[in-house]
Amino acid sequence: MSQLSLDTPVTLSFAALQQWHAALQNAFAHSESQDALVHLAAAIGQLVAVESMMISLERQGQAPQLLYQQGIPEQHRDAILNRYFAAGYLLDPFCLAVESGLAQGFYHLEDIAPDHFFDSDYYKTYYLGTGCSEDSYFIADVGDGRKLSLSLFQGCSGTRLGVEQVHLLRAVEPMVRELLVRFARHGLAPASTGHGSIQAAFDSFGCQLLTDREREVAHMILRGHSAKSTASELGISPETVRMHRKNLYQKLEINSQSELFARFIDWLRQG
User: What's the pTM value of the predicted model, to 2 decimals?
Assistant: First the structure.
């Protein structure tokens, strides 16, 4: 997606603007109940033609907790609502960014995805495999180490968000964030116990066979980083990354990134 300058004009009909404000007003009026999320989703739908949405509670070191979803096709609900929240989130770039301290705001998938993410098996499985080609993301800090995320998915129709639509979503981010904060203050139930540390899940994968550095390289490959990007993140040379990759492939008796991804998913299911 091309970069959008701050002076890019955004066109919105008067009727759509009225509908957005009416739906947003309803959301704020119901901010102390679960209905706030329904009205917020309706308000965003007045601005852009979003195919599906998902609102989740994000806690550092724990699995995200689904609070609301709209428009996820029935044939993909198991993959998204069961497999993703059970284990798939561990390689999701947004969850990993939150784990690393991502600031609240509005982000497009291309803003934070690693350089080879769109060639990764994770993207093919959890995005393209579930009818999604792109994801946009509101995130609000709601205190006590918790964040609320609102994900907007596109792809089933074959259409992508235009630059004007992305610009519009960025422009309304303060209002969306304020609504999410108010909902969390009054309508968010106490969080359930998490599924364990994300970092612990990575640290234990291959711990019987791989060195600490080889596990770090494996994690970077799984997340969609190239050798160059991995080298930059770990402070080593690309040649050293390739050496570690060769060694870990030999130890795991695999020959490709796809086999590494399959091995990691199998390990998660057994765990």
Answer: 0.82
